[in-house]
């Protein structure tokens, strides 16, 4: 493992509040120097980072790597290659695999595959209930011991209030965050897209915003006396932003994440039955997009997450009502976040990087490993960003096994040009 | 599907439209919403010409003669399938029926694989019916031949909308320009779950009519009317009094049973049935339509269904020329494209 000098970049480390021109020296997989005018160690590789942003390795706390069980859609190898291509040094994978990540053995399998073929760091969020069936709790303490960095039945909400109550208690006791996929199942049975004008025109069963709001509202109330760290996944509508804002104002340990598509697209994207616009939660209205963006700007939403959800062209070629939900996101996220939040003037780069590094690190306890920040002695995970790089989202360049995204052909601005994971250069553009 | 490039056409009756194109670049008809009035009128003019053709006249079409046209019906249908088959036969084409049951569809073949297999047999066009909204669009985006939507879930049934418009035009002497300005159409019943309501609303509003959705609030919600560019009322008598035509939608109790939207057939009939008394209070020239199959004694009284203002059989009759026009114009556009 060689040494590296990253020279002359704009170093942004939100954890320490640094935003200055500085060099970084990496040796033995660790950061050994941060500051101006550093000298390269003998034989060091020198990376010219002038006019680039040098940030802690980006972290995506919500991806679907599909392994084990759905390797035709994605594998840990292909999903982490996509992550690195998009600038990420760490991803947290969701437990809706087959079998579900509901046992220490399943977590060990993911860890083993990631250590063999993973291009970046992989941590796993474990299932809250056995088989993600929503009935019997998993052994959350044992799963935390086995390395789980969060608890979620993502893809489904934990609908039973009684089960949720116990899950919050046990997740709290394990020192983890509970990550809820907020969707009342009864109000969304067979729903295919946001309940609104477009669904009425297309004759598709609608998915009301209140189905999301009700679960958040219930959970926040349930959690008042429990005090678990409670995290709202891929929040999609204005009412949800309002509930999270209120809970945070009361000082409750509540956080929320937003996904690229909910920051940029509305239900109009479903016109013409484009199954790449079919998401869970669904694309909603412009007022919701504006509210989610505002929630990021005012500090209600503190984490960005792609919900990277690969599906094959065959999966997505079904009629809209039958097609699976979700889109890939790792390779396009940085530019799309920048478009929605930075180029639009809502926040600056330091804040965007905070939402993609130290905040998700804290959610998943990765800050305890030194991830999410850049400091001497810490792990050498670095992402170098050209904030003004202009590029076109091109199907042929996608590293994921799947191609399901409505953003193909979009003109993008801002791109990772370098990724270092534990001192190894994984991306150099 | 929604934008139509107009090209000059050799038809002496006026410029023909380029029907909607799918993403593979070939013409098809997937929906009426978003289609220009001029394009709808061109199909209706062609349909009227076919309807007027003398019995026994040669209506075969050079782009379709001896070519297979596939009916891909993944959902039960009698009249629509027959109507398309007759239309294809009158154009000189060879209609092919694929029944979902008994085909490889029942062995788990996907919709798209089935469509591609049928396409590989060299069909001139594909007619698709499926229980899911967006099914015809899904097929159209992955085959190179024209696709005609014969009903996709609750979304649209465009040839039904066209045949209803033709029936209405004939009744009110509007066959010259197919301009329905100043006329009102009431669509009564379960518009929310109806593909016929969506295609009718698109066609009639495009042609200038005022369209009113009338039904119980759960089945004809104001938000739906707004989304479709219509008005709504929950007062049947008000809707009937203003109407120059009423389209009585079939109520599907089997689908509504557990929604709580309506109490049951008797209660529905009391509130929403088109009875002889109600029909008698309609405008003298108003017509009664029903897309079929009818629940006699539920949404429509048998005496009204068979009465002098009923155009139910005329609708069935008009299905053939409308589908001939649709098939012929799609085949012409595909030939131009090739």
Short structural description:
The complex is a heterodimer of chains A (429) and B (338). Chain A is an alpha/beta fold and 429 residues long.
Order of helices and strands of chain B: HEHEHEHEHEHEHEHEHHHEHH
Shape of chain B: globular
Structural class of chain B: alpha/beta
Low-confidence stretches of chain B: 1-25
Keywords:
heterodimer; A: 429 residues; alpha/beta; Urease, subunit C, domain 1; TIM Barrel; 2 domains; eight-stranded mixed β-sheet; four-stranded parallel β-sheet; 13 helices; 17 strands; 22% strand; globular; B: 338 residues; Rossmann fold; five-stranded parallel β-sheet; 39% helix; disordered N terminus
Structural account:
The complex is a heterodimer of chains A (429) and B (338). Chain A is α/β, with parallel strands linked by helices and 429 residues long. Chain A folds into two domains: 4-53 and 378-428, Urease, subunit C, domain 1 (Roll), CATH 2.30.40; 58-369, Metal-dependent hydrolases (TIM Barrel, Alpha-Beta Barrel). Chain A is built from 13 helices and 17 strands. Chain A has helices at 76-85, 104-117, 140-145, 161-173, 197-202, 210-223, 238-249, 260-264, 286-297, 313-316, 333-342, 349-356, 358-363, and strands spanning 4-13, 18-27, 30-35, 45-48, 53-56, 58-63, 88-93, 121-124, 177-180, 193-194, 206-207, 229-232, 254-258, 303-304, 382-392, 411-421, 424-428. In chain A, the strands form four sheets. In chain A, strands 1, 2, 3, 4, 5, 15, 16 and 17 form an eight-stranded mixed beta sheet that branches. A four-stranded parallel beta sheet of chain A has the order 9-12-13-14. With 338 residues, chain B is of the alpha/beta class. Chain B has two domains: 37-157 and 319-337, 3-Layer(aba) Sandwich (Rossmann fold); 159-316, Aspartate/ornithine carbamoyltransferase (Rossmann fold), CATH 3.40.50. Chain B is globular. The chains are: A alpha/beta (429), B alpha/beta (338). The interface between A and B is medium-sized, with 19 and 28 residues.
């Amino acid at each position: 493992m060689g040494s590296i000098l990253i020279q002359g970049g704009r170093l942004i480390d939100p954890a320490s509040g640094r935003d200055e021109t500085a060099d970084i020296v990496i040796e033995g997989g660790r950061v050994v120097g941060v500051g101006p005018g550093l000298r390269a160690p003998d034989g060091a590789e020198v990376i010219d980072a002038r006019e680039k942003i040098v940030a802690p390795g980006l972290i995506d706390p919500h991806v679907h790597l599909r392994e084990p069980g759905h390797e035709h859609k994605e594998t840990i190898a292909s999903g982490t290659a996509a992550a690195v291509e998009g600038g990420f040094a760490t991803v947290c994978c969701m437990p809706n695999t087959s079998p579900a990540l509901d046992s220490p053995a399943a977590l060990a399998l993911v860890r083993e595959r990631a250590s063999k073929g993973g291009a970046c760091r992989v941590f796993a969020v474990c299932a809250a209930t056995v088989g993600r069936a929503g009935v019997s709790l998993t052994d959350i303490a044992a799963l935390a011991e086995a390395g789980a960095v969060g608890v979620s039945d993502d893809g489904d909400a934990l609908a039973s209030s009684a089960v949720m109550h116990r899950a919050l208690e046990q997740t709290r006791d394990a020192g983890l965050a509970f990550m809820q996929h907020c969707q009342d199942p009864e109000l969304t049975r067979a729903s295919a897209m946001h309940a609104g004008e477009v669904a009425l025109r297309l004759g598709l069963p609608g998915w009301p915003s209140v189905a999301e709001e009700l679960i958040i509202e219930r959970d926040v109330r349930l959690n008042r006396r429990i005090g678990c760290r409670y995290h709202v996944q891929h929040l999609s509508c204005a009412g949800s932003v309002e509930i999270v804002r209120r809970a945070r104002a009361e000082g409750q340990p509540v956080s929320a994440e937003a996904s690229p598509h909910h920051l940029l697209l509305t239900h109009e994207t479903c016109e013409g039955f484009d199954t790449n616009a079919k998401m869970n939660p669904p694309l909603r209205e412009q007022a919701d997009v504006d509210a989610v963006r505002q929630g990021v700007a005012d500090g209600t939403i503190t984490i960005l997450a792609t919900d990277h959800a690969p599906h094959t062209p065959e999966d997505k070629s079904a009629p809209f009502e039958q097609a699976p939900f979700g889109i890939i996101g790792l390779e396009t996220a940085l530019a799309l976040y920048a478009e929605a939040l930075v180029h639009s003037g809502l926040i600056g780069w330091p804040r965007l990087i905070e939402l993609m590094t130290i905040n998700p690190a804290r959610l998943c306890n990765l800050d305890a490993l030194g991830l999410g920040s850049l400091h001497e002695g810490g792990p050498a995970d670095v992402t170098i960003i050209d904030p003004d790089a202009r590029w076109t989202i091109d199907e042929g360049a996608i590293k994921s096994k799947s191609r399901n995204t409505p953003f193909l052909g979009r003109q993008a601005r801002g791109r990772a040009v370098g990724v270092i994971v534990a001192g190894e250069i994984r991306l150099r553009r | 599907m929604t934008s139509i490039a107009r090209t000059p056409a050799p038809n002496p009756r006026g410029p023909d439209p380029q029907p909607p194109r799918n993403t593979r670049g070939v013409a098809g008809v997937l929906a009426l919403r978003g289609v220009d009035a001029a394009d709808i009128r061109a199909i209706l003019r062609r349909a009227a010409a076919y309807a007027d053709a003398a019995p026994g006249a040669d209506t075969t079409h050079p782009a379709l003669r001896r070519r297979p046209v596939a009916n891909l019906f993944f959902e039960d249908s009698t009249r629509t399938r027959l109507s398309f088959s007759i239309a294809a036969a009158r154009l000189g084409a060879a209609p092919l029926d694929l029944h979902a049951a008994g085909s490889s569809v029942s062995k788990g073949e996907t919709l798209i694989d089935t469509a591609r297999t049928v396409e590989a047999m060299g069909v001139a066009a594909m007619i698709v019916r499926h229980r899911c909204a967006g099914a015809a669009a899904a097929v159209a985006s992955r085959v190179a031949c024209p696709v005609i939507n014969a009903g996709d879930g609750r979304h649209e049934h465009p040839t039904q909308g066209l045949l209803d418009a033709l029936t209405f035009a004939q009744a009110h002497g509007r066959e010259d320009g197919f301009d329905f300005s100043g006329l009102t159409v009431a669509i009564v019943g379960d518009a929310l779950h109806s593909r016929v309501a969506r295609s009718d609303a698109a066609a009639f509003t495009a042609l200038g009519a005022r369209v009113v959705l009338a039904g119980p609030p759960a089945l004809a919600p104001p938000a739906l009317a707004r989304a479709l560019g219509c008005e709504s009322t929950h007062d049947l008598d008000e809707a009937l009094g203003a109407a120059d035509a009423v389209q009585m939608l079939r109520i599907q109790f089997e689908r509504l049973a557990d929604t709580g939207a309506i109490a049951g057939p008797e209660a529905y009939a009391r509130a929403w049935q088109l009875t002889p008394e109600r029909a008698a209070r309609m405008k003298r020239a108003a017509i009664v339509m029903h897309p079929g199959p009818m629940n006699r004694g539920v949404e429509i009284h048998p005496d009204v269904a068979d009465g002098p203002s009923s155009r139910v059989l005329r609708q069935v009759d008009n299905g053939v020329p409308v589908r001939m026009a649709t098939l012929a114009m799609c085949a012409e556009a595909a030939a131009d494209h090739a």
